[in-house]
């Protein structure tokens, strides 16, 4: 019995222990999966409740909405610490860390999206409120650019009147501010741009960078006027300072899909999040496709389409509050269906009747071309192709020292260009092939320190180096069976030899060239408040530039003959050309600005600055002298020197508004311009200097934002650009063949005095404006705002030729764009249309090679429309 009791007691003890263990497991499981509640109230910076805001537990799908009083309650199984994201339309989405559960409600403050008068810029290499910076700057947020359909730089010219961008393809791109920066027309690789183009602090030397699609843009700052004491590369006309969003520790993602007519489809996505402690990563991808808007009747295919793919990856390491390291890599690949020019017209030149375009075409047995450019039809017999890849890698290190930041930016970039073009723009087999294959590598290093030296003094000092290696690889220009008639000056004498069968068939040149360049500089600028509210800002820059050129052009094809007369006729079309040259120069430039800021609503400033664009070299072929040799006097182009005066007024008349006025005058000595030559072999033109140029103007821009309901912006720019002295300008197309009496003898001349003539690419009047009205609403269970928005831009007539011409002028045009839809903190959906009025307009006109009277144009886009869906989570 005793034994039995003992056993039972033992079993009871075991049972109790088992139950205790089981109960403990159940209790711990209950604790592990307890539903903990987080409560809070969401307010604006002014302390008023933010109703209907979205609250999300980061890393989960758990979400809720605040009530009309901004109060919320959300349940989670996660243990602290964790993040909650709070977002609402009109406010910046913010993450708040929950360190522990508490009984009292959290008080969370949302910051409104930047008001127009509170935009922060980094144009002076430190964060400042836009209106406090004594520089003419236009700022476009990444979201605003996307909403306006500005997915590359070309679209920005409709938003900022002082920006001019003209492109017949990615390589032949002219990016100017206030009409200055790059040569207008066909690009010559031997000249440096005068507009600096920076993405995340990295200077991008080739103008083709402007053709790539934006990838996750945060903000675009457009600085007008010389800025060489702030940026690495000299910028005689201004700069684009583009920043992309950085990776975040908190997981984020965004997806966007655009569809439209012409089978337009664009998809974008970006994903960001932590990969390790203090290390975040981001990947952004963009793809764009669109059918062409120009129909080639001979090939029965469309041209001027889009086929772009872009990638950008970033790693962001923040081991401490003082150190930030950003490693970025990007590549953009474009294989569009070409960008052909359409025949825009035929004019009579001053050559003999035998050499007029109509007579030439008739003698060759072709029908006269139909001048109907806006039918968007071409009839060319060489496929158009403009393939390119562009990208690079960069490392940016920011280290806080004292009251400033030491920054190092190291970068390598590449550009590969493989085109084919039909440069006679027609079915005629004349200039049948033109392909300037190029390879470009650049290496850059910038180190600078920016910050506050004392309570009254701040500034930036830095050094910069850029090495470039630009190669032209077997760049080809080739003529066909009809070219003989374009170069023949008469049907008699030695010229009759051009009718020899096959003389010029497949005759061409292959060019291999190399430009090795080095640019180094040291720059500094200070901001000293020497009297209360009165600032003086001196800046200096010393620059050294060196360029080495190796140019080798050889002929091929055509009739193989030993006949001296026939060889002379061929040499008059194309000839071998070789030269080497090396040049260097240095320059000391600077600026001084006075800025008076008596209140936060007024900033008055005046600036005097000098600037410089480096020596240029010609690698597009040189005109020949009377004995047929290359004119080496044109191989090197003198540097360009700038004197610039500017007066600015930045104001905030009433809450939510800004009105800015800028007046400026720019004088340029030895202005570098592009000259179109009637000779084949230099069909991309060559560089020359105009003795003196002046550009002056006034810019007015204003914006107004009424709470979250209405935003309005408008800008107008008046620009007047002229050659003050250009005594050796090329003849315009219609004056080709002009003769003058020289010592009593009628002598044909190739140049004229264009002094007083207007500069190309500059409209006297440029205006833009836009408005957006929104109202609160709901789609399904999601609160947001319905909106309707539109913008309009106008450019008056401008010259499209280096020398003023009666025919190569682009007529003024107006473009109207609109969009309507719904947007919330997470999702936006809207319809859009660009060029609603289907305005017919040219972006550029240019004479066909040989100057026989034919000229062609780059067409602006027709009406396009579509829809956009954007979702972030």
Question: How does this model look, in words?
Answer:
- This protein has 873 residues and is mainly beta.
- The chain has 3 domains: 36-110, Sandwich (Immunoglobulin-like), CATH 2.60.40; 120-244, Ferric Hydroxamate Uptake Protein, Chain A, domain 1; 252-418 and 428-872, Beta Barrel (Maltoporin, Chain A).
- It has 6 helices and 53 strands.
- The strands form 12 sheets. The protein has a 22-stranded antiparallel beta barrel. It has a 5-stranded mixed β-sheet with strand order 10-15-16-13-14.
- A hairpin with a 2-residue loop joins β45 (765-779) and β46 (782-795).
- The N and C termini lie far apart (72 Å).
- The model is unreliable at 1-11, 18-33 and 678-684 (pLDDT under 50).
- It comes from Pedobacter ginsengisoli.
- Its main location: membrane.
- Belongs to the TonB-dependent receptor family.
